[in-house]
Description:
heterodimer, A: two-stranded antiparallel sheet, B: two-stranded antiparallel ribbon
Amino acid sequence: MTTVQGSAIGFQERAGIRRTMNAIRNYSLPILIALVFILASILVPQFLTFETIRAILLATSVTGIIAAGMTAITISGNLFSLGVTASVVLSGVVYIWVGSVSGNIFIAAIAAILVALAIGFAQGFIVGLGLNPVVVTLAAGAIIYGATAILTGGEVVAAQSRELGRFATFAIIGIPLPVFVLIAFTAVAWFLTERTTIGRNVHLLGHNKDTARNSGISFMGTTIWAFLIFSVGLGVAAVLQVSQTLQVQADNFPELTMNVVAAVLVGGTAVTGGDGSPVKSVIGALFIATITQIMVLVGVPQGTRYFVLGVVVVVLVITLHLLRKAGSR
Amino acid sequence: MRSVSTWFARYALQLGVLVIVIVSMYALYPSFRVEASIERLIPLGVIAAGLAVTMIAGEFDLSIASMAALAGALTVVLSGLGLIVSVLIAITVCTLLGMLQGWAIAKLGINSLVFTVGTLVLIRGLTWLVCGGLAISIDDIAASDIFYGRLLFLSPLSATGLLILIGLGIFLSRTRWGRELYALGSSRPEAIAAGVRYPRGMVIAFGISAGCGAVGGALTSALSGSAAPNALESMLVAGIAAALVGGISIAGGRGTMVNVFLGFAIISVLSAGLAGMGAKAFVSQLFIGVLLLLIVLVEYLIARVGERGRRSRLRRLAGA
Lengths: 329, 320
């Protein structure tokens, strides 16, 4: 079949088509967001206000940070972590506890991130042995959820003082700190995955596991690194999330895992590994937050919002898949 | 005799775990009853069977819990037509949706994990729309009574569950279409080259998966007389845990309905036993997570030891 096609269109023309398809795939989402912004600014009266933009950015910050970190796992060919929610809750509980005891939010934040790192290291190690990442992270999620619920007795853990919310309330020129953290973390994650040896190994491993291993790249080591990058983001996001709510309970944030996975997929990182970028995933998260916020403004009920979001995710995922197929032909 | 011993060898790990779980439950909690615990969680067993079919075919259906919730919502909304009729309609609609999903996955050649993350949200949204955003209940409370009768010694619920497991077991092991799912799961390019129709396999696998999810959801709603837009979300993790603890391979091509039954029995005895002892639901979550991780690790170690043995045998042959 390919020979027939090959004779019909020349090699150079095919390369041209491939370039065009890849360009469309890389720039389609930013263009789409821009279009949605312009349309919403014209059609939805309250959209182009400082409050709305601020709300969108704040909603993007938590999912965006986790999605940027998870992109490292996806690029390394280890699909996703399906235990996001449980880990965020545990880190959040640690933040409130350490914060209440020490009275210092920085010590509390570091403790929360360290806990996330420990959990991530353990999962990265087990996945690095060669076990299926979906199963491992699902099981880890159940264990962490159970352990957190036992530790807290299933009760709400609330901050004693508003001091613990400083990370969320602190703002520079009216823009809250989480937005700056999102930008900074995305930059770090981008640098780590695109400009360092670790990042190159992550890409190569995701591209072709066997070849990477034969060239001396450690599957175990690289997988653990990917999980550590993810865990830093997870810990940071947990601190920001709990700073906003000032309380946390074992069964909070049930939709977080799927939102993060959806952001990574909509952003255009390939689940097969080897191709993607944390920046893309953050843009994916931004897109989802924008659509949701517009629907809230227009007064769409929750059920319909969920449905529309589902349609958007399915359509985008299919479109990206078809573009990738056309681009690699 | 030989076939009996190979049968036991095949399921030894899961049978061992099941015996340990049952014995420790009786030891810790003497008034424990195995039958009661299994019966209460039958919808979970059916959902695990659906997940197992897609795993055997080398795919993954993350949308199954949403499909179950949709079937539950449809059952309640349509209950004016008679409960059995509405259950059947709900199951039919969801099975057709599942077949459509399988067809789309095959035609697009897309990773099913990716596609079903999208449909997980989409079908959950559809459930919200069907429910009108609220928890809903059947007007005629007496309608669910027919599901509490007895057929010989089985409740209608366990009879349905058993029939589905046996039916799927026969379909997978004795029919051509069922065998083809194993072929697609274990070595897809070879299977396709040998003439297995990949699109048909996907339509069948995802149709069965959605159908099983729908049976689980519709029966749950028919028994409780209610449905909610955010119901049954935990069924996804519990169902995957049951299938994998039972010994279905996530890599595809391996596992039977006996595995599903054993996994379901282990999980349900464990969670029912813990609940009976007064432990909260999250404690059984912890145990299920640990068990899942342990079983996957043990299977991994067994596979590695087996691989090493095979290699040393080959080396000896090469040396001799």
